[in-house]
Amino acid sequence: MKKRPSLSDIAGSLGLSKTLVSLVLNNKEAQYGISPETSERVRQKAAELHYRPDRMAQLFRTGKTMSIGMVLPSLSEPGVAKMADIAEQLARKEGYALLCATTQGDPDQETQRIRFLAERNADGLLIVPTGNNPDLTGLLREEGLPAVLTGRPVSPNEPLPYVTADHFWGGHLVATHLLEQGCRALAVMSEGQQGSPAAADRLQGIVTTLADAGLSPSPSSHLVAGGPDPEAEMERQLGGLLQAGRLPDAIIALEDGLILPCLAAVQRLGLDVPGQVALAGFGDQPVHDLTSPPLTMVSQPDKQITEKAFGLLMQLMQQITPASSAVHLPVELIVRRSSLKAARS
Q1: Domain check: are 114 and 23 in the same one?
Q2: CA distance 342 to 129
Q3: What is the extent of the structural domain holding 160?
Q4: Residues 292/326, Cβ–Cβ less than 8 Å
């Protein structure tokens, strides 16, 4: 069997030290002042010899596998897929591989996926949390892995580092906008009565804004898009409000991904948007500018959230205590025709 090429083989053939070769192949040449020309020579020789790092030897030598696990709800969600792509680019730049595992929003699967990645000796974890896993803190403490969440834990008092959008302010922005458009009866729609921590924070922002405006602090209706066919359930509940003469002025979809089925349910009932009911949601994506009408959305800084979370994780993996372990980044309201009073007249 042909001998596997080693760092010593590359170093010997170039007349360089094994340490220098290792630094270049771990993408640390800039950090240690190694010239681009030398770095290129090392990489060319490594490719020529078909060099592959021995990850098992690396694990025994350093205790690291140079891998980061990322636990996600689903890669079919555009916002989540974008975050995974950004994390992969950041990991590659630092010399790490990114291992993705999906939960489909199920807390039991979240627990299993975290254990799966821990068993494969991931050096750290980035977690897009399901938001309804009360055992998450204990699980991560048990596994002993550095971890950062891209969303707050179920309880804001749990000692888990996280980076998230300022969802409370997002709720305030959308409620203020709808009030300015003359809407007074605001309904909200979520995937459950409790919803995710993000949905809870958004709802609190809406409730506070209504109270500050001297209106009832409770939304006129809280619609729940549950069951095997959320779109049909939305249509059933909205139809009931329409028949009872209690159709709200506006509906705010609290969860990412709910606004499109909400729009479809409203239009199947023959209701005009925004003529009879205004719509707004969270988690802006390019498709929301292409619907009829285009949808008013709160845009979240997915890129900045991922970059900040990755930076915190790198600090934890290096046993550096971050300056802050609870980071809230600003959001932006993107106003489109689905909520504009002028378009309703």
Answers
A1: no
A2: 39
A3: 66-165+302-329
A4: no
Alpha carbons within 13 angstroms on the beta-carbon side of residue 68 total 30
Sign of CA dihedral 262, 264, 270, 274: positive
3-state helix, strand, coil in the chain (%, to 5): 45, 15, 40
- The pLDDT tens digits for 52-78 are 776 655 555 555 778 999 999 888 888
Same domain membership, residue 202 and residue 113: no
Distance of alpha carbon 217 from the chain centroid: 29
pLDDT tens-digit readout, 35-58 = 999 999 999 998 888 887 766 555
**Which tokens go with 50?**
């078909």
Buried b (16+ CB within 10 A) or exposed e, 220-253: bbebbbeeeebbebbbebbeebbeeeebbbbbbb
Parallel, antiparallel or unpaired: strands 296-299 and 332-334: antiparallel
d(Cα 327, Cα 222) in Å, to the nearest integer?
29
Pick from 168, 163, 164, 106: which is nearest to 135 by CA? Answer: 106
**Between the CA of residue 48 and those of 9, 20, 39, 157, 233, what are the distances in Å?**
11, 18, 14, 54, 60
For position 201, which CATH number holds?
A: 3.40.50.2300
Counting the structural domains of the chain, the total is 3
Note the Cα 202 to chain centre separation in Å: 16
Structural domain contains residue 102:
yes
Rounded Cα distance, 13 and 10, in Å = 5
The rounded average pLDDT for each run of 10 residues, N- to C-terminus, in the chain (345 residues) is 77 91 86 91 90 63 78 86 94 92 91 92 92 84 90 72 95 97 92 76 94 84 77 87 90 91 93 95 95 97 96 93 88 97 57
Considering the domain architecture, whether residues 178 and 282 belong to the same structural domain is answered as yes
List, in sequence order, every residue forming a beta bridge with 82; answer none if it has no partner. Answer: none
